UniProtKB/TrEMBL annotation:
Keywords: Membrane, Transmembrane, Transmembrane helix. This is MFS transporter. The lineage of its organism: Bacteria, Pseudomonadati, Bacteroidota, Cytophagia, Cytophagales. One of its GO terms (molecular function) is hexuronate transmembrane transporter activity. It is found in: Membrane. InterPro entries: MFS, MFS_dom, MFS_Na/Anion_cotransporter, MFS_trans_sf, Sugar_P_transporter. One of its GO terms (cellular component) is membrane. Coiled coil: none annotated. It comes from the Bacteria. It is a multi-pass membrane protein. Residues 13-424 form the Major facilitator superfamily (MFS) profile domain.
Length: 428
């Protein structure tokens, strides 16, 4: 098939997934950026704020499984619409509550609905892209997590200064409703889409996967947990998701304690780290897609990319020797970018080894597992850093954590390799 004759509508779909993921990460960060203002407004303690965050984290874990199943049952278009609509309502409702409990409840609703983003987006990629392009498409939409992490600190303080904290919740929450308009009119599965050319339709299905309908019946979770394909994704998330959350929540503190970074001012080092993750997300997707286009077997291309990424993370163990902040930024940026490359390929591998009708369910199960692990790992991080802080050597605690970060991806890759060595096609 000549490349010039293939249309590009599938990339419009990819752009929609990218924008939804960006909005997802903007909405979840608003409360953190408004934390000082809200603490003064409602007399919150650190414990109060901790409970609010726990509501979000626990609901997010549960939401993965719920929306994973819902989206496989009712289809990507409607399932994604429900997820975005509910999380946008929850985001706006933050402006109306006046108590710690109220913030906890709306935060829980936000987490529950936001969890639908990745199951829906990964399933949409499986519906709209052949295997040779799925990792690149996933990398592009997954980079929305990085763009959202950079955009929120620019957007929210400006709204806060110009209008107030309530308007910050309302305006950012309304972004989802704008997205919904475009999603509803632009998205449909390929077999039903009127703007899709026959050439692009054939290219999307070049892997000879059967076309899907929007509803395919219910799926048995116990059956999914009995097959290796599900455990490939669970392992890939459980061993690496906590590392990402460590990067998000403890890097500012690390730079502040180690290099005396002033966190009351705009932080260029942190901006560099989070910007690097965008290149990692897209680059990781490009690499495995490039290998497939060169004739590599799909699973071999994904696993080779994951192995390369696992080795790229290893230098983070040398961060302990960095005496200059920009040397540390370079080492940590490399690891953070590598994580996003890992994330892109571990999401994509689901659509490679799992039938399309089960993609969202498997992403939901693995995503929930990763979220649960990410909930408990901070307890270990907090205990470890507190222990060494009492000894007057908090740097030693960070050194141990960087060693864990360095080896986590290689361990995950080894288990994934063993699981896939004699893996048979998944039959539902």
């Amino acid at each position: 098939m000549e490349k010039g004759k293939v249309g590009n509508y599938r990339w419009v779909i990819c752009a929609l997934l990218f924008l939804a993921t960006t909005i997802n990460y903007i909405d979840r960060q608003v409360i953190g950026l408004l934390k000082p203002t809200l603490e003064a407004q409602f007399n919150w303690t650190e414990l109060d704020y901790g409970y609010i965050i726990m509501f979000f984290s626990a609901s997010y874990a549960v939401g993965y499984v719920i929306f994973g199943s819902i989206i496989d049952r009712i289809g990507t278009k409607l399932g994604y619409s429900i997820s975005v609509a509910v999380w946008s309502v929850a985001a706006v409702l933050h402006a109306a509550v006046r108590s710690t409990l109220g913030f906890g409840l709306v935060r829980g609703l936000l987490g529950l609905a936001e969890a639908g983003n990745f199951p829906a987006a990964v399933k949409a990629v499986a519906e709209w892209f052949p295997k040779r392009e799925r990792a690149l498409a996933t990398g592009i939409f997954n980079s929305g997590t990085s763009i959202g992490a950079v955009a929120a600190p620019l957007l929210v303080p400006w709204i806060l200064g110009a209008y107030g904290w309530q308007e910050a919740f309302i305006i950012t929450g309304a972004l989802g409703f704008v997205w919904l308009i475009f999603w509803w009119f632009l998205y449909e599965i390929p077999s039903r889409h009127k703007k899709l050319t026959p050439e692009e339709y054939d290219f999307i299905h070049i892997d000879n996967e059967p076309a899907v309908t929007e509803t395919a019946g219910s799926l048995n979770w116990s059956r999914l947990l009995q097959v290796r394909q599900t455990w490939v994704f669970i392992v890939g998330k459980v061993l690496t998701d906590p590392i990402w959350w460590f990067f998000l929540f403890w890097l500012p503190s690390y730079f502040a304690t180690t290099f005396n970074l002033d966190l009351t001012k705009p932080s260029l080092p942190l901006a560099v780290v989070y910007t690097a993750t965008t290149f990692g997300s897209i680059g990781g997707g490009y690499l495995s897609s490039h290998l497939i286009k060169r004739g590599w077997p799909v699973l071999k291309a994904r696993k080779t990319t994951l192995l390369i990424v696992a080795f790229v993370v290893l230098p983070i163990m040398t961060a302990r020797y960095a005496t200059d902040i920009w040397v540390a930024v370079g080492i940590i940026s490399l690891a953070a970018a590598a994580h996003q490359a890992w994330s892109t390929n571990i999401f994509t591998i689901v659509s490679d080894i799992v039938p399309r009708r089960a993609v969202s369910s498997v992403v939901g199960i693995g995503g929930m597992s990763g979220s649960v692990a990410s909930t408990f790992f901070p307890l270990f991080v907090g205990w470890l850093l507190n222990y060494y802080d009492l000894l007057g050597n908090i740097g030693a605690g960070y050194n141990i954590l960087f060693i864990i970060c360095g080896f986590a991806y290689l361990l995950a890759w080894l288990i994934i390799h063993l699981l896939t060595k004699r893996m048979k096609p998944m039959v539902l």
